[in-house]
Amino acid sequence: MKKHNYSAGPCVLPQEVFQEASKAVIDFNGIGMSILEISHRSKEFIAVMDEACDLALELLNLKDKGYKAMFLQGGASLQFLMVPYNLLKEGGKAAYVNTGAWSGKAMKEAKLLGEVQEIASSKQANFNYIPKGYVVPSDVDYVHLTSNNTIFGTQIKEFPKTSVPMVCDMSSDIFSRVIDFTQFDLIYAGAQKNLGPAGATLVVIKEDLIGQSGRTIPAFLDYKTHLEAESMYNTPPVYAVYVSLLNLRHMKKLGGVAAMQKRNEEKAALLYNEIDRNPLFEGTAAVEDRSPMNATFLLKDESLKETFDKMVKEANISGINGHRSVGGYRASMYNALSIESVQALVDCMVALEKKIK
Prior knowledge:
By secondary structure, this protein is of the alpha/beta class.
């Protein structure tokens, strides 16, 4: 029986995508070879890469608006370093908003290359809210934000207005909601949280941002290198890109990002309403900043944990243990998670309440 997969990443993907991907492992497009063995220089895979990059821009409503998409490697962790290498000028400054573990790691890498200003942080409250009311300095080379915080269950609802380039790590909520993506100059997202398998990283960059840092950049860390090579500077993660393409096609068929947002809002409302209604549970994130992608919550009485965990296991639910930084539970409700899976978790919460009465 298929489990209700709440894993924070690698993420749940649609069954249709798994089925199509599994066929390609045996015979890709009827060419007599597996997707796992074809050359990344073959016309067949070049077509995959071109379509994946084109479709990513289309779904983000960024086609013909001066942006390029790339599929790279190294996850968001490599982007923590690539961003300052390419955008932070010698002797320049960068601004970061610290909303969790990943933005903290991004700042750490940027400090290797220049001055970093932490212009806002929610660290003092264990990152349970999104800072607001801060001002982005006008003399920085860029400002960096993390749109969704997987560990702490928060999401930025409104982005700052600024005249400086805005960079956003969207690893865990890319393609999940409709926003004006033209407000960003660079977006990056590890595929494994809401797009595809581990191994690929989507980078979307405004073309006029390339080559502005004035630095001597190692070839592999230079966005210009990868753009000129059309994501083929080195052997790309062929299978991860292909499965990401299948998922992009699937999203488009369902109605694009707007349809994903509607599904995600329904799932989040179902679970958060139960967290707030049920006297045995409480959410950990500020209500106004709650993430539709990652709901974090606690049992008010820890003595019930063993009972609840057993009920969850019997319901075939997987991956809801909270991160050690927060504890409790974390339900990751990425695009492909069905509302039926959310209902299964809610049913367990209701059943626990009835059980102890």
